[in-house]
Amino acid sequence: MTPKLSKADLTDLPLVERLLQLYLHDFSGFAGADSPHGLIGENGVFPYGDFPGGLRSFFIEDDRSAWLFHYPHPTQGDVLAGFALVNAHAPSGEKVDHVVAEFHVLRKYRGIGLGRAAAHALFTALPGMWELGILDDNVDARAFWPKVVQSGPCHGTTLTRSDNDRWSGDIWHFVSAG
């Protein structure tokens, strides 16, 4: 399967905002009921981006980007299937070229190889040193990402562990030659 990967531009911001709500809803399931994480606002919207520029920064800053991927549907053509947000702000604090900040595959398209193919396409589109953090509570990501990183265009992979106030979970480093 070869998904269509495209870099999103500012006109795609409303679309990515809506997709981000689906992602944050899924992500809220990893936080316990008493956790401050995963709370929805009184306006019915999950908050995102307690950093300057928030989500919009992925569309206007040089060290951030937003990506869309589409599933090649046999009768409907390319249909929207997920998104990725990339920056250079590593959970480890190390200097890297790219970090998977957020990555979301719509539930309908999970388990068919689309996410793996989309991630590989993303790594190929952005060559350089990558970092990928996986939070301990994200069981789905802990199963998904090791298979992705240990295949495809990822070379020189290393796995470290972080347990501090900055990050709690596994951190993968790898190089993609593009």
Q: What about the largest sheet?
A: 7 strands, mixed
Oligomer: single chain
Poorly predicted runs of 5 or more residues: none
Which sequence of SSEs, written as H and E, runs from N to C?
EHHEEEHEHEE
Q: Averaging pLDDT over every residue, what do you get? A: 94
CATH H-level superfamily: Gcn5-related N-acetyltransferase (GNAT)
Give the CA-CA distance, first to last residue: 19 Å
Q: How many strand elements? A: 7
CATH architecture: 3-Layer(aba) Sandwich
Strand order of the largest sheet: 1-2-3-4-5-7-6
Structure class? alpha+beta
Return Rg in Å. Answer: 16 Å
Residue share in helix: 10-25%
Give the CA-based shape. Answer: globular
**CATH structural fold name:** Aminopeptidase
List the helices and strands and how they pair.
Blueprint: E1 4-7, H1 13-28, H2 57-60, E2 65-73, E3 77-87, E4 98-105, H3 114-125, E5 128-135, H4 139-149, E6 154-163, E7 168-176
Parallel strand pairs: 4-5
Antiparallel strand pairs: 1-2, 2-3, 3-4, 5-7, 6-7
Helix pairs in contact: 3-4
Task: Describe what you observe in this structure.
This protein has one domain (4-176): Gcn5-related N-acetyltransferase (GNAT) (Aminopeptidase, 3-Layer(aba) Sandwich), CATH 3.40.630. The chain has a 7-stranded mixed β-sheet, with helices on both faces. It starts with a strand and ends with a strand. The mean pLDDT is 94. The protein has 4 helices and 7 strands. It is of the alpha+beta class. Helix 3 crosses helix 4 (139-149). Helices cover 24% and strands 33% of the residues. It is globular.
